[in-house]
Amino acid sequence: MTLLTALEAPPERSYDDLPRLMSLMTGDEKHSAAATSTLDVLWVLYDRVLRVGPGSADDPARDRFYLSKGHGPMAYYAVLTAKGFIPEAWLPRWASYDSPLGHHPDRVLVPGVEISSGSLGHGFPLAVGTALGLRAQGLTSRVVVLVGDAELDEGSNHEAVELAGALGLDNLTVVVVDNGSSTHNRPGAIAGRFVHEGWHAAVVDGRDHTALERALTARIEGRPTVVVAEVEEKWA
Ligand SMILES: [Mg+2]
């Protein structure tokens, strides 16, 4: 029993292992900016913030993470591998015909993935519904949803900003990874849109793990939180 446990336990991995895990996945050149802009946010969430792991992936009281920006999942798969949700052996064949790891994450096929995503504008409204459901059940779990700056161009997100603010969903955190890729957003204006609807907002360096941890663990009574994580401009 002891031997089996030792063999089955995934090896401990650190942030420094992520580039190697990412390099095992090839062929996503189209979305490499989407994949790498989220890497530090994802790592800090799973390493320091979220109360969830491979052993609690079905626990009703777990924290939920929704990757709404599902069209660039390489960093997500690398972090899930580093944290033991999925085996490293899955990575080299990602996006092949019978691989569970698609170009868009599938909640049915990939352990630890909470929503199937990739079509922009879906994850944030789903997170609002989940936060409301958790509150109705009296659970203290949090919901964190990651969206892209360009994804906020989708109208469904604005409805979600309004509703979560009106309901005071303080168990909800939205992370906007801002790489200046939006068509319609004015530079520097993202946080203000949320504050106007009653949210708590923080704007941080999306590569600074200490700043990200501080912002992502904040919970302000009666207000949802948005963290704008600024990273390198996509077109720079
Ligand atoms: Mg973007």
UniProtKB/TrEMBL annotation:
InterPro entries: THDP-binding, Transketolase_N. One of its GO terms (molecular function) is magnesium ion binding. SUPFAM superfamilies: Thiamin diphosphate-binding fold (THDP-binding) (SSF52518). Residues 30-228 form the Transketolase N-terminal domain. PANTHER family: TRANSKETOLASE, TRANSKETOLASE N-TERMINAL SECTION-RELATED. This is Transketolase.
